[in-house]
User: What shape does this take?
Amino acid sequence: MNRTLSVPFAFWIVLLSVFSALIIASIISALDPSILDGSKPGLSTYISMFFGQAFLIVPVLIYLNRKKLSAIESLRINSVSKEVIIATILLSIGAMILADEINILIDMIIPAPDSFLQLEALLTPDNPLSMLLLIITIVLLAPIGEELLFRGFLQKYLETAWGDITKAILLSSLFFAAIHFNPYWLIQIYLLGVLLGYIAWQTQSVISSIIFHVIINASSLIFTFLGESAESALLWRGHINPIILFLGAYLFWIGLKQIKLIKVL
Assistant: This one.
């Protein structure tokens, strides 16, 4: 990527991308009457989420096009091997299980705010079209857009500009966590960002971090849909069943070990 791009300007491009997406989503969601009466979100809300996430990477693509820079190279869109895909899947399943236990432990110390009830309503639409838009947005658009923006554009540039991989991953992950505007999940999102950053750097591709992100988001959505039935299958005395937790830790270790051993040309 062109080194004439300054670090502050790289962060400004990311901020522009995020706030542009938020503005577009806000304009469309303003058409939803549920905002005023407090009822379940309507179709306009899910349309706004869809277009907001779809627009997230657009400012960066416009910048790269104007500078005549390759999006494939600048955003680290490189193909990955079958071994990378398998290792990423194992790692993501293990991380999902461990993250659930971390959520439980944090909730014991800091109970979830009442606003989370509104989030549950948002993630369980009644309209089939709203459900389809939600699934596409959460499972596909969000992982693709966020990985291209944060692990592809921002982190890759910081790695080159600073020459310090660790600093680039930690700072871009902090930015990633901050733009979610969710203080309650700040720690979990930051740790997720660090792991995604490591995967993208180690495999030299955002394809692997997108796969990881897709699985995490999809599993979260599935567990939300299943509700108490999922809890009864996974929990034991208020925590993740020790057998499942051990399996998650093992899959996480195996996946991380395999990714660490992968040699990227």
Notes: The radius of gyration is 19 Å.
